[in-house]
Write a structure and sequence with these properties.
single chain; 559 residues; alpha/beta; Rossmann fold; Domain 2, N(10)-formyltetrahydrofolate synthetase; Formyltetrahydrofolate synthetase, domain 3; 3-stranded mixed β-sheet
């Protein structure tokens, strides 16, 4: 039996249609396309129809607590989109763009997998349409303006360098840049101070891009970026540095969503890419509304599991954008259930019903979490050949006892037809009108109340502790008048708790808020749980080592 081809081989062998044909399926005139080659294009904001999009159906794909092996949210999102089209529905995927850091690090390609991918795969995973580069440049322009102002005696804002919270960014895993010194080498090189780099998806500019709903909104949010304090204790914002116009100019094209296609020739929009562990973890509001304006069904995803990505999708993005999701697909894999049931790495490929049963409480907690938002999820079992029928039956029986369907999807191996059963169940769920979205908290509640609600109801914590630094940060937030912002929790994605070693469904644990970060431009407050990594490092054997370019321009090794 021939070996199953890898993702890149499948993508390179697939027929691909000119992007104007994909646009025509959506009723988009070719004159409204800004072409980036033959297979990708930017779309103008005028395609958002405020009278139409609220009438169409938004579907979120989330997952159980992830493992190092991947649960396949993007693959299932693309597969579900193809499955909906296969059963006669007008559907499209609206997803995030991949970051180069994970692409060259551990993860490799991030455009779906198997026969459920978006293409052109190489372009999407590499430079794509330059959005990440524009975000990086806008971020670093602000950094340059800050350091320039520090040594500018004539127009100085008298910023205290010790209070500056703004970091430089680059879209690469580079641990050596986490903590650096800038301004060394004499007076011509600036004022020496501590600084550092975050990865581009962790930039507040990325979060702002995904929250902004117009150029005017973008500029207002850019102006609201908090920089630090003056020596006499006054807050300094990006608008005080007159940075807004130039930053917005750099983002002129990046704010427009990108149109591509699935392997089966169905439309997909990719736009934005904030990480869910440290930001809101969802694509842009404008992309989602544009998708809903153009298609009857829109499939989107939120990073990591329901305790992070889905919670932020609901409580931040949906509330800010006035979105009403009508269905949730919760992805699980048998391997992940074995992992959370205590299986060691060497045992993960071996069928083990008791280990799967032991891991089911983790899935059960995420089911409960989605239910808290007024939506009954559908569990999608992302099928792999090593899955045993008895293990699958155990998952389905467990879910049935909770009143939830668990449907096997073979989208990875079979594309849309492998997700047809899932698509049918999703349509039936939407047509039943039994779901009615509700956020977990009101933005007007105190910050401590919002945090406690998430910690206790979503994570399952028994209490919330605050460090001395976090308590001081809270006073600063109140002084700045930002207490009515939503909270964007930053914690490990590897556990429901703030301790990545606690697998399954931990109980009777406290979480600790170590400190707060402000994303006043994006419009949320970030409680930091534990030591969060905002600039990842490369693994011992990075995926980049396997990549190459042939003499005739063909990329290999991008998995």
């Amino acid at each position: 039996m021939p070996a199953f081809p890898n993702d890149l081989q499948i993508a390179q062998a697939a027929p691909i249609r000119h992007i104007k044909e994909i646009a025509a399926q959506l009723g988009i005139s070719k004159d409204d396309l800004e072409y980036y080659g033959k297979y990708k294009a930017k779309l103008p904001h005028k395609l958002i129809n405020d009278a139409v999009w609220p009438q169409h159906h938004l579907i979120l794909v989330t997952a159980m607590t992830p493992t190092p092996y991947g649960e396949g949210k993007t693959t299932m999102s693309v597969g579900l989109t193809d499955g909906l089209n296969a059963i006669g529905k007008k559907a499209m995927a609206v997803l995030r763009e991949p970051s180069l850091g994970p692409v060259f690090g551990i993860k490799g390609g991030a455009a779906g997998g198997g026969y459920a991918q978006v293409i052109p795969m190489e372009d999407i995973n590499l430079h794509f349409t330059g959005d990440f580069s524009a975000i990086e440049k806008a971020n670093n322009l602000l950094s340059a303006l800050i350091d320039n102002n520090l040594q500018n005696k004539k127009h100085s804002l008298h910023i205290d360098p010790r209070t500056i919270v703004w970091k430089r960014v680059m879209d690469m895993n580079d641990r050596a840049l986490r903590h650096i010194m800038v301004g060394l080498g004499g007076t011509n090189n600036g004022i020496p101070r501590e600084d550092g780099f975050n990865i581009t998806p962790a930039s507040e500019i990325m979060a702002i891009l995904c929250m902004s709903q117009s150029i005017a909104d973008l500029k207002e949010r850019l102006g609201n970026i908090f920089i630090g304090f003056t020596f006499d204790g006054q807050p300094v914002y990006a608008r005080d540095l007159h940075a807004v116009g130039a930053m917005a100019a750099l983002l002129k094209e990046a704010i427009k969503p990108n149109l591509v296609q699935t392997l089966e020739g169905n439309p997909a929009i990719l736009h934005g890419g904030p990480f869910a562990s440290i930001a809101q973890g969802t694509n842009s509001i404008v992309a989602t509304k544009m998708g809903l304006s153009l298609a009857d069904y829109v499939v989107t995803e939120a990073g990591f599991a329901a305790d992070l990505g889905a919670e932020k999708f609901f409580d931040i993005k949906c509330v800010a954008g006035g979105l009403q999701p009508e269905a949730v697909v919760l992805v699980a894999t048998i391997k992940a259930l074995r992992h959370h049931g205590g299986a060691k790495k060497a045992e993960l490929q071996t069928a083990d019903v008791p280990k799967v049963v032991a891991g089911l409480p983790n899935l059960g907690k995420h089911i409960e979490n989605v239910l808290k938002f007024g939506i009954r999820p559908i569990v999608c079992i992302n099928y792999f050949p090593a899955d045993d029928a008895a293990e699958i039956a155990a998952v389905q029986d467990y879910c049935a006892a909770l009143g939830v369907q668990a449907i096997v999807s073979k989208a990875f191996a079979e594309g849309g037809k492998g997700a047809a059963d899932l698509a049918t169940a999703v349509v039936q769920m939407i047509e039943s009108k039994q779901n009615k979205f509700k956020p977990l908290y009101s933005w007007d509640e105190p910050i401590e109340t919002k945090i406690e609600r998430i910690a206790k109801e979503v994570y399952g914590a028994s209490s919330v502790d605050y460090s001395v630094k976090a308590k001081a940060n809270l006073k600063t937030i109140q002084t700045l008048g930002l207490q009515a912002l939503p909270v964007c929790m930053a914690k490990t994605p590897k556990s429901l708790s703030d301790d990545e070693r606690k697998l399954g469904r931990p109980e009777n644990f406290a979480i600790t808020v170590r400190e707060f970060e402000l994303a006043s431009g994006a419009g949320f407050v970030i409680p930091i749980l534990g030591d969060m990594m905002r600039m990842p490092g490369l693994p011992a054997e990075p995926a980049a080592e396997q990549m190459d370019l042939s003499d005739d321009g063909v990329i290999s090794g991008l998995f």
